[in-house]
Amino acid sequence: MFSGIVEDMATVVAVKQYGGNMDFTLTCSFTGELKIDQSISHNGVCLTVVSIDEDCYTVTAMEETLDRSNLGMLIVGDKVNVERSILMNGRLDGHIVQGHIDETAECVDMKDADGSTYFTFRYRTDKEMARRGYFCVDKGSVTVNGVSLTVISPTDDSFTVAIIPYTREHTNFHDITIGSKVNIEFDILGKYIARLRHFDN
Q: Given this model, what pLDDT does residue 198 score?
């Protein structure tokens, strides 16, 4: 489990594809503290550390993860938002994040807000997905590339978030432009409520 509070931006140093899987080798400020089998969120995707070599570590993404996320688009030199799993005795500064990406969304608009920036994202949806909780609610939570954010002005297939200068500087939001693909995870509480309503009907 994660909180959506990004710890660092890891740099991709190698990408290797074999079969339907891809290995990503990265380096970040806490590489020396990692252990094999540890779960790390990469752009919101929970991946397991499979090897560590000096100042780099490697994780593997399977085909289903690559199909559902933007990880397959990563190249050497890209910056990835990373977060270690939360400690149960710590503060939950963001919201409950599973690290299970629901789908990608496309940035369709950016507006300056006196130094901050409003980003609008559009995602694929249909009635069945909405019944399963794949939607946003005003002032609810959503995770974008692993960043816990508050939803503004949601529609049936889009939402807006406000990014303060600190967040834009310290996450890969500074690389997002119109047309960029991001990973999104909808609020797990909303998914459970939607599922319960399905059984009540």
A: 65
SS3 189: helix
Contact present, 157 and 123 (Cβ < 8 Å): yes
Average pLDDT, the chain: 92
**Could you tell me the pTM of the whole model?**
0.91
| φ and ψ at residue 44, rounded to 5 degrees | 90, -5
Give the 3-state secondary structure of residue 95: coil
Residue 52 shares a structural domain with residue 111: no
Q: What's the CATH number where 171 sits?
A: 2.40.30.20
d(CA 146, CA 19): 26
pLDDT digits (tens, 9 = 90+) for 28-58: 999 999 999 999 999 999 999 999 998 999 9
CB 42 within 8 A of CB 70: no
Q: Which of 26, 57, 84 is the last residue of a domain?
A: 84
DSSP label at 165? H
Residue-number span of the structural domain to which 129 is assigned: 103-200
